[in-house]
C-alpha cells in the first residue's frame, strides 16, 4: 500500500488490478483536492484472496474509516471486503473491453441483504472518492466545509456555462 496526503490514511483505495488505475485514479485525485489522506494499492479478490481478506479484516484496526474498492468483470472485490469489515465500502464498477461495464456493475451492486456496498456508476471513481469524503465529513466539520465549497464551485461553474450559452 502507498500512503498519500498528510497524516494517517483514512480512506483505503484498492483495486483488483493495476489496469484499474486509469479509472480509480479519479478517486485519489478528488481526495487530494479535499485534503483527505488515503492509501492506494492492488488487492485482487481472485489472484490474492488471503491478502485481500486480511486487508479487509485489518482495515478498521489500522485506522482506515472508509474503503473505496474498484474492480472489473467478475468484480467480487468490494463485496468480499464488505463481508469481512464493518467499515463502509464504496464499490466502483470498472468498465472493461467487453459488456461496457455491465458485468462489473451487476457483480458489485447485487449484494445479498446484510452485506452492503454503496455502488457508484460505471467508471464513477470520482464520485466514490467524494462519497468517502462525505462519510468522513459527517463527523469532521472542517472537511464538511471543504465539501460545501466544492458544491458551491459546481454551481458556479454550471451557472457560468449557462451564461456563456446565452451570450
Ligand atoms: C479484475 O480483472 C480487475 O479488477 C480488472 O478490472 C480485471 C482485469 O485485470 P487484468 O487482467 O487487467 O489484471 O479482477
TrEMBL record:
Substrate binds at residues 17, 20, 47. Residues 9-158 form the PurE domain. Pfam families: AIRC. GO terms for molecular function: 5-(carboxyamino)imidazole ribonucleotide mutase activity; lyase activity. Its EC number is 5.4.99.18. The keyword Magnesium does not apply. GO terms for biological process: 'de novo' IMP biosynthetic process. The keyword Lyase applies. It catalyses: 5-carboxyamino-1-(5-phospho-D-ribosyl)imidazole + H(+) = 5-amino-1-(5-phospho-D-ribosyl)imidazole-4-carboxylate. Gene3D superfamilies: 3.40.50.1970. Pathway: Purine metabolism; IMP biosynthesis via de novo pathway; 5-amino-1-(5-phospho-D-ribosyl)imidazole-4-carboxylate from 5-amino-1-(5-phospho-D-ribosyl)imidazole (N5-CAIR route): step 2/2. Keywords: Isomerase, Lyase, Purine biosynthesis. NCBIfam families: purE. Catalyzes the conversion of N5-carboxyaminoimidazole ribonucleotide (N5-CAIR) to 4-carboxy-5-aminoimidazole ribonucleotide (CAIR). Belongs to the AIR carboxylase family. Class I subfamily. This is N5-carboxyaminoimidazole ribonucleotide mutase. It comes from Jiangella ureilytica. The gene is purE.
Amino acid at each position: 500500500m502507498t500512503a498519500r496526503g498528510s497524516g494517517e490514511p483514512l480512506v483505503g483505495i484498492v483495486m483488483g488490478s493495476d489496469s484499474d488505475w486509469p479509472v480509480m485514479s479519479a478517486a485519489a485525485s478528488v481526495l487530494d483536492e479535499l485534503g483527505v489522506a488515503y492509501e492506494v494499492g492492488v488487492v485482487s479478490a481472485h489472484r490474492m484472496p488471503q491478502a485481500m481478506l486480511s486487508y479487509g479484516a485489518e482495515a478498521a484496526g489500522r485506522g482506515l474509516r472508509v474503503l473505496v474498492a474498484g474492480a472489473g468483470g467478475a468484480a467480487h472485490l468490494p463485496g468480499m471486503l464488505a463481508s469481512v469489515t464493518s467499515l463502509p465500502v464504496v464499490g466502483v464498477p470498472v468498465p472493461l473491453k467487453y459488456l461496457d461495464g455491465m458485468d462489473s456493475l451487476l457483480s458489485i451492486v447485487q449484494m445479498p441483504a446484510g452485506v452492503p456496498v454503496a455502488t457508484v456508476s460505471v467508471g464513477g471513481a470520482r464520485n466514490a472518492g467524494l462519497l468517502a469524503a462525505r462519510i468522513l465529513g459527517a463527523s469532521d466539520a472542517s472537511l464538511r466545509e471543504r465539501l460545501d465549497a466544492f458544491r458551491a464551485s459546481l454551481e458556479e461553474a454550471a451557472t457560468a456555462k449557462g451564461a456563456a450559452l446565452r451570450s
